C-alpha cells in the first residue's frame, strides 16, 4: 500500500511538472530557467502568478471531487452516484452565473464569484434535503430527487442566459469546467475548505463502511444510519461546492475516480479516501496538462492564438468513453 501511494505521488509530481511547461507563451527551457531563479519579470509573473496557482487549484479541485464522489457512492450505496446527484454542481453554476449577470461578481473578483457559487451550491443541496427529507434518508429516493433538483437548477441557469445572453461565455465556462485564469486568491480560498472537509470525510470512514453494508447491518452495529448519511452528504456537498466554485463543473471526476481509487487501494475507506484524493488530483492535473498541450498544438496548426481547450471538455469526453467501455465490457453488471 505504501508503494502504491509512493507511485501515485511520483505520478502527481510528473503531471505537475508537465502542466507547468505545457502552456503557451513560454518554452519549457524558459520555465526551467525561471524555476532556477532566472528569467525576466514577465516570465516570472507567468510562472509564479498564473501557472503555479492554476496547477494548485487543479490539484485541490480534483481531490475534492474525487473524495466527494467516493463519499456519495458509499453513503447512497450507488456506484453511479456522483456530485451531480446532490444538486450542488448545477446550484453552484447557477449561483455564479446569476451573481455575474446581476453585476454582483465577475472574473476580476474571485472572492465574490466563489462566494456566489458556494451559496448556490448550498441552496441546491438544501432544496434536495427539503424534497428528500420525507424519505428519511432513503438512498434511492435521495438519488432520484437529486437528479430532479439538478434538472430544475439547470433550467434556471438556462433562463438566466435567456435574460442575459451576454453571459453565454460565463455559463459555458462554469458548465464545462476550466482552470483558465485561476490565481492565488482561488487557491487561498480552496485549500482550507478542502482540508477541513477532507479530514471530516476521513473521520467518517467507519460509518461509511457500515452504510455500504446496508442500513440493517449499520443499525445492528449501533449506528444511526440516517444521521450518518446526513453527515456524509453534508461533507460531500461541502467538498463539491468548494471544487465547483473554484473550477466549475468538471465532468465524470466524482463518478469514475472513486472506482479507480477503490480498485487500486482496496475497499477500506481509511486508505481509499486519501487514495481517491491523490488520484483525483493526478487525473485533473494530468488532464489539464493534456488540454494545454492540445491547445498549443491546435493553435499552431490552425494559426489561432486564442484557441483554448477547457479541461472540463477533455474530462467529459474521456470519462464518457471510459464509462461506455466499462458498461460494454461488463454487460451483466447491475449498476
UniProtKB/TrEMBL annotation:
Gene3D superfamilies for the chain: ABC transporter involved in vitamin B12 uptake, BtuC
Keyword NAD found: no
One Pfam family this sequence matches: FecCD
Cellular compartment(s): Cell membrane
Membrane topology recorded in Swiss-Prot or TrEMBL: Multi-pass membrane protein
Residues spanning the membrane: 55-73, 85-105, 111-131, 143-163, 190-211, 231-257, 307-327
Keywords in alphabetical order: Cell membrane, Membrane, Transmembrane, Transmembrane helix, Transport
Keyword hit for Disulfide bond: no
Family designation: Belongs to the binding-protein-dependent transport system permease family. FecCD subfamily.
Protein name according to UniProt: Iron ABC transporter permease
